[in-house]
Every structure is written in structure tokens, then in C-alpha cells.
From TrEMBL, chain A:
Residues 26-141 form the Aldehyde oxidase/xanthine dehydrogenase a/b hammerhead domain. This is Xanthine dehydrogenase family protein molybdopterin-binding subunit. InterPro entries: Ald_Oxase/Xan_DH_a/b (IPR000674), Ald_Oxase/Xan_DH_a/b_sf (IPR036856), Ald_Oxase/xanthine_DH-like (IPR016208), AldOxase/xan_DH_MoCoBD1 (IPR008274), AldOxase/xan_DH_MoCoBD2 (IPR046867), AldOxase/xan_DH_Mopterin-bd_sf (IPR037165). Transmembrane segments: none annotated. It comes from the Bacteria. Pfam families: Ald_Xan_dh_C, MoCoBD_1, MoCoBD_2.
TrEMBL record, chain B:
Pfam families: Fer2 (PF00111), Fer2_2 (PF01799). Keywords: Iron, Metal-binding, Oxidoreductase, Ubiquinone. This is 2Fe-2S iron-sulfur cluster binding domain-containing protein. Coiled coil: none annotated. Transmembrane segments: none annotated. It comes from the Bacteria. The keyword Cytoplasm does not apply. The lineage of its organism: Bacteria, Pseudomonadati, Pseudomonadota, Gammaproteobacteria, Alteromonadales. InterPro entries: 2Fe-2S-bd, 2Fe-2S-bd_dom_sf, 2Fe-2S_ferredoxin-like_sf, 2Fe-2S_ferredoxin-type, 2Fe2S_fd_BS, Aldehyde_Oxdr_Iron-Sulfur, Beta-grasp_dom_sf. The keyword Translocase does not apply. Residues 1-76 form the 2Fe-2S ferredoxin-type domain.
């Protein structure tokens, strides 16, 4: 529950150090697996099913039960009762039952079949290794060919329609130069550094749960639905989350298993997913096949855009991502067609991974646009400038604000696009440069917060919002400090506690604007209460909190009262105000997007096929930036993801058992420090008050959108090798070089 | 008593020989600064110093360390304040979620003494490399999924400069 050490006012936008920074650099921030109850914590280790999509026919736990230190072995025979998986059907997917050990259904490879709870990890792990089981299955069903994806998903993540179109697409594509391309992106995993972990304790009345989750309120609902308990008997805490990236939006097997163990044994039980289990138990992003057709006329204007997406959908789990979203919004064209199809397959859960839709949609689409620019013999920056959509290309609805052109122009200038140099002809290592655009939807999600003012001038903010590395602690402190002109050191931010007012949680780039607006609204209400207590008309006076004084108004009408005096009649000598936010009309009336332009320089070794990133530069427009330091870091982080998607990440299916082959961090490659070159970020900063009253828009997923395509385009610029099957590994580069 | 020393304090070795140093820190000493990211020596989140050298605590069995002195993130600072590298990490925003941070800082501290002692990294065998490339190489055993890599390099450089000045 950090308070800042900042002895002065921290303004909105200021590049303030993180207030939770000192805790984190000392290893003192308490993550889920580090909480201790008065009683010793038992350790649970589960056994995952050896294969997918079938029925558990046999599970033998006898040897495990007889091992020293083992307190219990749970299977579907003896686990506490649960509501069937995915009930109730009308609940959002993060609030539905996530029952495990409840019946013989094996939902996917790695699905829990038994939980061993022992005194120590060593005992539990060994006992778990003695459990044997069998699964009867017909063999996994996969999506292999694009033609197999025939199902239209009911809706797409982000609320997009599966299919949209405008104009005569056949005419538009065939009336000018046409390119047909098939791009593929692989399965990917969030791989947050903290594996999903939960410690649960049932005291006979309340179920106390320390877990790592992005959204608290739906986590409580999920546990209530799974365990048939009233929500008010469940207390979830998640003050520090070691990365989420979508994989911790909901609760996963660690949480349910820890609760089952805790209820069964009436003692604290910890279940931490092993890294290998994270790959199956936590959701991943499905692979995509994106068939793209584009056409442009002789002057380099786009005529037709057709984007057909095929992806797998996990059985019993209706999630589909909008890979075509960027193709619908970025460029104007005479005709646009965007179609999404899925095939329901045997697979571990498929769900959000940073920037669902746009991260992999932009990887393919902005590469394809580059192909069109090259075929049009137009500079890729100029080509994009010529075709940027001034309003929604399909509906014609205006953007709230839109600075894509400015991002592109400023980025080209700062990057030195017109000064780029090529390698010598006889050098086998070739330099290349790439550009790509980013458009990421902006949302406000309902969010509530409460602030409490003590009579010594200290303020505490309560909201069940999370800080998953996003800087929430710090920016909420800035909102309050700025509003009351008070030192940040007098402000405590209390996050990640389900007993606090329900927030939007972290996800979908909506966290900062939504939660910060709710806190701002709470500040305004508190201010109005203080004015009223001082006999001033509500809302007409600015209120500052200096030391123990309330100062209202300015100039001649300024009044000052001691807080101790003012609050002496109030209950507890404190004052409380609640703030909330909901999406307003401007979210219906305007298209709201954050946008950006990415530039990359790479070298490609034409002998080995190795791509090295020299530098990445991004220019972003996301309204008012709340903290330039944390915002820059988050955008840079997204750009690292984009680089990693372009060159490394590839979760390989196990065709025998329906799981994955490369389930660890040595075999699932993501970028390490030396893989990344120089990286820089700048902003086109203009508040967008149609987005929210703070003028801010989302940035968490903006950095990744387009970043990978800029690198792919640079690889092609360097060598002429256009790899349409991501990631661009050396073997594919060499094959493309011919 | 068969013991090992952690941050200057002696602890009896665990009875169970299967206990790794990392699990010993968590289960017996209740020091949670070193993190478990993979348990396979692949991510570096559990990096600690053993006799001043950086090692993955998940790959060491506690009983191998009898008589050894171990420093974890909790013991990196020499007084009540922050180590210069810890300060630089805050200043440079060299972390986001913070889960890899303990390991990054322990690695960074060891890196500084490696450079002082002229311990080579793999880039030293290349014909042409920069100091930054060398530091990036040395920090590449510590994964950061938030992508704070460039800020981590900035922090290490700042801490090295500060150390040089003092």
C-alpha cells in the first residue's frame, strides 16, 4: 500500500518515479505467493492430464497419499463440491465457474486430475510424481487449413462485429493493381514473469485468497460461482501482480485448487503454477491465418482492402480476437471487407494476450500495406500519408481526436527516414528500415473509488484496481496530489483488495483513464463536501490541502480552516467521498483511438539469416499522458513485445497430445536484453476530453500494435525477403532469399 | 552445525536434501526477494550472489552451500539506504511489474565486479563490440517480460558512473 516519498505536489503528466519503486527494488513488494497467515502454509502441487479432450478413466493416488508430509490428495472423488464448469452461462467469462477436479471431463492437455497438498514443496512434488492416470480420447482436433474455419464467432473481443464491409469489394480489388497475400502468426503466450500463484485460507466463515489477478471483482464472482459461496464471504487480495498481459484477467487453476485445498483442510494452502504448467493452465493467444487482398491505383491510393481471419477457438470457451480491426480503421478505401471465422478445437484456453486483435492483426496488415506500397513504387511513409483515413472508413463516424498523420511525420523526422543509408553492395550484412502504423481502440470501463481524508491532512484512496506494472499506484497518487495541491507523501494508494469499491481492473488499455477518472470524481466530491462545510457554494471554489489546513477559493475570497477543526464533528474525524465513471455519450458519438507510428532499423546477415535490431522509434498520440516516465516505459515495453513477435515467439503445438511442446523459457523464446537495440519514444500530446475528463487515452497495448510490422518491413527493405509466416527466424529468411 | 550464511546471518542447512537454495529462502528463511520465475535456470529472477558471484538460486541445492556466504536482494544495500543500483533502477524506471527486478539488480551488482576484475563475456571474443553491447550481453540471462531492457541498461550505466565518482 505505497505512499510516495515525494514531499511536494506531483502534477498530472509529470515524470514522477514510481511510488512503489523502493519496495520493488528491495524485493519487499508482496506478491501473491509471499503472504503469510498465522498458521503455516501447506503447499499444493497438481498433476495435469497427459492429453487433451477426453475422459479421465483412471487415477491412482495410493502411493502419493502414503508419502511423508502429505496431508491430502484431492481428485474428483473427494474434492469439495463445485458448480459445473462455465456456469452460469449468462455470466461474463471471468466470473463463471472454473471448476476443476469436479468430474471426469478433461478439458485440455494439462487440465488438473489430482492435487497433492503436503507440508513442503519437496514432499508435494515428489508425491505428485507417483500419481498415475489415464485419459480416453479420440485424439485432438486441430485447425490446420483456413477452409476448416467456418464458424462465425458471436462477437469479437472489444465488441467488434465479426463481419463488416462497405463498397463493392470485388470491383475495388479487381479494377486496379491487386495483391493477394496469406500471413500467418503463431500461437503465443503472455509469459508474465510471475507464474500464476494463489494462497487461500478458509477460516470457517471467510475464504481469504491472495492471488495474482488483473481484475478483483470478477475474481470474487468466479470463486463464488465455482465454490457455491456468497460473494461477501470471499476476500481476494492482489496488491502486486508480477505481470499479466491478459493472462491474469481471470482466475486460473492455481486459484481454484488452492481454495479447494484450503476448504478441505481448513489450513492455508499455496498453489503456484510451475512455469511448465503456465503454458497449459493459463490462456494463450491462438495462431492466425490472415488472407489479405489489397489494391491500389496508379497514383498510390488504396482501392480495396479485404481481410479474412481464421483462428482456433478453444472448446467451451467463446473467445475470438479481432485481427481485422486495424484493417477496418487505419486507411480509407473505396471498399473494405473484414471477415472473422473460427474453428472450435481441442486446445488449452485461448484468451487475451496483450493487444488482442491488433498486435497480430497489425503484424500482418501493416506488412501487407508495405507490400502494396512497394508494388506501387511509393515510399512506404508517403504511401501511408496518402491513405490515412480522416474518419472511420466504414461508418464515416468522426474520430474524437486523430493524430496519425502527425505521428508519422514527426516520427519520420526524428528517426531520420529521409537520411537512411544502405549497406555496401559487397557487404553480406544488409541494413534495412521499416515503418508501420498503430491504431488501438480506447475505452472507458465502469470504475469506482473511495477517498478518505483524515484530520491530519492525509488522504487514502481505496479501489480494487490493480497495478500490474502499469504504474497505477503512482498515477492515482498524482491525480490526488494535483487536484488538492498537496504533497504526494500525504497520499496512500490502497489497491488490489476486493473489499474496496469495484474498479475496472487492469486490461484492454482502459485501466488508467477509467480508474483515474473515478479517483478524480471522488476528489471533486470531497472538495464539494469541504466547501459546503465551510459555508461555500459547491463546486465554485478550488480546494487545496496544505499541511493540516483546507484552503478554499483564491485571492480575496480565499478561506483557510484547520482540518482538525473542520472534521471534529464528523464520524471518526474523517471525511469520505466516492467517485465513479461510466462510458459517456462521446463513446457512442465518436470513434476513440490512440494511435502511433513505428520506425525500425535492422541488419540482416544474408549468410546466416540472422536479424539484429539496431533501433526502434515510436511516436504516439494517446491524449494527455498521466506520467511521462511510466507511460514511456509501458510503450517501450510494448515495442519490445512487437520486436519479439516479429522475430522470436512461437508456441508449438504438440500434435500427439493436444498441448504444446516448448513449455519453458528456454524453448519458448522471447526477446532478451541483447536482442533489443536502441529504443526511443516521443509523444504528440493533446488532451482528448471526449475520451475522459482527464483527457487521457489508453497506452498499454498501443506500443505493441504495429511495432513488429516495422521490423518485418525493415527485414524486407534490407534484403527483399518478405517472410509472411511469423516469427521471422533465420531459416525463413534464408528460404525467402532463395 | 552444518550451516550457510545468508546476508550475514547463519542458518542451519535444511533436513530435506531436495531443497533448492531458492525454496530454502522462501520456505525456511522467509526471504521472498529472490523470485521463482521458471525454476529451471532460464529466467534469472532468482539470481543471488554466492561468495560474490551471481548464481540462479533455483539451480543450487541448499546442502551444496555449506559454509558459503549468500547475498540476496535484501542484503544488497550496505546500510539502511538503497544500493546505488537500486537507486538507479528507481530513477530510470528500470522495471514495471517488479518481479524480475531482484534478479536484475543482483546480476547488475555482480556485473560491476566482473567488469572490475576483467572477467570476459562472450562479446569479448568478437572483433568489434561496444561497452553497451557487453552490458546487454551480461544482462541477457535476466528476462524481463515488461520489456524494461533499455532502462535496465541505463540504470546499470548510471550506477557504474556513480561508483566511479565515489
Amino acid at each position: 500500500m505505497p505512499a510516495s516519498k515525494h514531499q511536494s505536489v506531483t502534477k498530472i503528466g509529470e515524470a514522477v518515479d514510481r511510488i512503489d519503486g523502493p519496495l520493488k527494488v528491495q524485493g519487499k513488494a508482496t506478491y501473491a505467493g509471499e503472504f503469510e497467515f498465522d498458521q503455516p502454509t501447506l503447499v499444493g502441487v497438481y498433476v495435469g492430464a497427459s492429453r487433451s479432450g477426453g475422459t479421465l478413466t483412471h487415477v491412482d493416488t495410493a502411493d502419493a497419499e502414503s508419502q511423508p508430509g502429505v496431508k491430502a490428495v484431492l481428485t474428483y472423488h473427494n474434492a469439495p463440491d463445485q458448480r459445473p464448469f462455465s456456469e452460469p452461462g449468462d455470466e461474463g467469462r471471468f466470473g463463471q465457474s472454473r471448476a476443476v477436479l469436479n468430474d471426469t471431463t478433461i478439458r485440455y492437455a494439462g487440465f488438473p486430475v489430482a492435487l497433492v497438498v503436503a507440508e513442503t514443496l519437496e514432499q508435494a512434488r515428489y508425491a505428485a510424481s507417483l500419481i498415475t492416470h489415464d485419459v480416453a480420447t479420440d485424439g485432438p482436433d486441430f485447425l490446420d487449413d483456413v477452409k476448416e474455419a467456418q464458424t462465425t464467432p458471436e462477437s469479437l473481443d472489444g465488441g467488434f462485429e465479426p463481419d463488416v464491409s462497405c463498397g463493392d469489394i470485388d470491383h475495388a480489388l479487381n479494377s486496379s493493381m491487386r495483391l493477394d497475400m496469406t500471413y500467418r502468426t503463431p500461437s503465443q503466450i503472455s509469459a508474465a514473469m510471475e507464474p500464476h500463484t494463489t494462497i487461500a485460507y478458509y477460516d470457517g466463515d471467510i475464504l481469504h485468497v491472495h492471488t495474482s489477478v488483473q481484475i478483483l471483482a470478477s475474481a470474487v464472482t468466479c470463486l463464488a460461482n465455482t465454490l457455491n459461496m456468497p460473494e461477501e464471504k470471499i476476500h481476494v487480495q492482489s496488491p502486486f501482480v508480477g505481470g499479466g498481459f491478459g493472462s491474469k484477467l481471470g482466475l486460473h487453476n492455481d486459484a481454484i485448487l488452492a481454495c479447494l485445498g484450503a476448504i478441505h483442510l481448513q489450513q492455508p494452502v499455496k498453489v503456484a503454477l510451475h512455469r511448465r504448467q503456465v503454458f497449459h493452465s493459463a490462456p494463450h493467444r491462438g495462431f492466425s491465418i490472415q488472407k489479405i487482398a489489397l489494391s491500389a491505383d496508379n497514383s498510390g491510393h488504396i482501392n480495396g482492402i479485404s481481410h479474412h481471419s481464421a483462428m482456433p477457438m478453444a472448446q467451451d470457451y467463446a473467445f475470438a480476437e479481432a485481427t481485422g480491426a486495424v484493417a477496418r480503421i487505419t486507411y480509407k478505401a473505396d471498399a473494405i471487407e473484414s471477415v472473422h471465422r473460427v474453428k472450435v478445437v481441442d486446445s488449452p484456453m485461448i484468451d487475451s494476450c496483450r493487444a488482442p486483435g491488433d498486435s497480430i492483426g497489425s503484424l500482418a496488415f501493416e506488412s501487407a500495406i508495405d507490400e502494396l506500397a512497394l508494388a506501387s513504387e511509393t515510399d512506404p511513409v508517403t504511401f501511408r500519408l496518402n491513405n490515412i483515413a480522416p474518419a472511420h472508413p466504414i461508418t464515416g463516424k468522426p474520430f474524437s481526436t486523430h493524430h496519425l498523420e502527425a505521428c508519422l511525420k514527426q516520427g519520420a523526422e526524428e528517426f531520420g527516414w529521409d537520411k537512411r543509408s544502405k549497406s555496401e553492395d559487397n557487404n553480406t550484412v544488409k541494413k534495412g528500415y521499416g515503418v508501420a502504423l498503430a491504431m488501438r481502440m480506447n475505452m472507458i470501463v465502469p470504475s469506482e473509488a473511495k477517498i478518505v481524508l483524515e484530520n491530519d491532512g492525509k488522504i487514502t484512496v481505496f479501489t480494487d484496481m490493480t497495478d500490474i506494472g502499469t504504474g497505477t499506484y503512482t498515477i492515482l497518487s498524482q491525480i490526488v496530489s494535483d487536484f488538492f495541491d498537496m504533497p504526494a507523501s500525504n497520499i496512500t494508494i490502497n489497491l488490489g483488495d476486493s473489499r474496496s469499491p469495484a474498479s475496472c481492473g487492469s486490461g484492454g488499455s482502459f485501466g488508467a483513464s477509467s480508474s483515474a477518472t473515478s479517483v478524480r470524481n471522488a476528489c471533486e466530491k470531497l472538495s464539494a463536501q469541504l466547501c459546503q462545510m465551510m459555508g461555500l457554494a459547491q463546486g465554485t471554489h478550488t480546494v487545496a490541502l496544505h499541511d493540516n489546513q483546507v484552503i478554499a477559493g483564491e485571492g480575496n475570497t480565499q478561506q483557510s480552516r484547520s482540518l482538525a477543526d473542520l472534521l471534529k464533528e464528523t464520524e471518526g474525524q474523517q471525511l469520505e467521498a466516492k467517485g465513479e465513471v461510466e462510458p459517456g455519450e462521446s463513446h457512442d458519438d465518436y470513434e476513440q483511438y490512440s494511435c502511433g507510428a513505428h520506425f525500425a532499423e535492422v541488419t540482416v546477415d544474408t549468410v546466416t539469416g540472422e536479424v539484429r535490431i539496431k533501433r526502434q522509434h515510436g511516436v504516439f498520440s494517446a491524449g494527455q499522458i498521466l506520467n511521462k516516465k511510466t507511460a514511456t516505459s509501458q510503450l517501450q515495453g510494448g515495442m519490445v513485445w512487437g520486436a519479439s513477435y516479429a522475430l522470436f515467439e512461437d508456441l508449438q503445438r504438440d500434435r500427439r497430445h493436444g498441448g504444446f511442446v516448448n513449455c519453458d523459457l528456454a524453448e519458448y523464446h522471447f526477446a532478451v536484453n541483447r536482442d533489443i537495440g536502441d529504443i526511443s519514444v516521443s509523444f504528440i500530446e493533446e488532451p482528448d476530453y471526449k475520451a475522459c475528463k482527464l483527457g487521457s487515452k489508453g497506452i498499454g497495448e498501443l506500443g505493441i500494435t504495429g511495432a513488429g510490422a516495422a521490423i518485418a518491413n525493415a527485414v524486407c527493405d534490407a534484403t527483399g525477403a518478405r517472410v509472411r509466416d511469423f516469427p521471422i527466424t533465420p531459416d525463413k529468411v534464408i528460404a525467402a532469399l532463395g | 552445525m552444518a550451516a550457510l550464511t545468508i546476508n550475514g546471518q547463519e542458518y542451519a542447512l535444511p533436513d530435506d536434501p531436495r531443497t533448492t537454495l531458492l525454496d530454502f529462502l522462501h520456505q525456511h528463511v522467509k526471504l521472498f526477494g529472490a523470485k521463482k520465475g521458471c525454476d529451471h535456470g532460464q529466467c534469472g529472477a532468482c539470481t543471488v550472489l554466492v561468495e560474490g558471484e551471481r548464481m540462479n538460486a533455483c539451480l543450487l541445492l541448499a546442502f551444496q552451500l555449506e559454509g558459503k556466504a549468500i547475498t540476496t536482494i535484501e542484503g544488497i544495500a550496505t546500510d539502511d539506504g538503497l544500493h546505488p543500483l537500486q537507486q538507479a533502477f528507481v530513477k530510470c524506471d528500470a522495471f514495471q511489474c517488479g518481479y524480475c527486478t531482484s534478479g536484475q539488480i543482483c546480476s547488475g551488482v555482480a556485473l560491476m565486479s566482473e567488469l572490475e576484475q576483467n572477467t570476459p563475456s562472450t562479446v569479448w571474443f568478437e572483433s568489434d563490440y561496444s561497452d553497451n553491447e557487453d552490458i546487454k550481453e551480461r544482462m541477457s540471462g535476466n528476462l524481463c517480460r515488461c520489456g524494461a531492457y533499455s532502462n535496465i541498461i541505463d540504470a546499470v550505466n548510471i550506477a557504474r558512473d556513480n561508483k566511479g565518482v565515489s
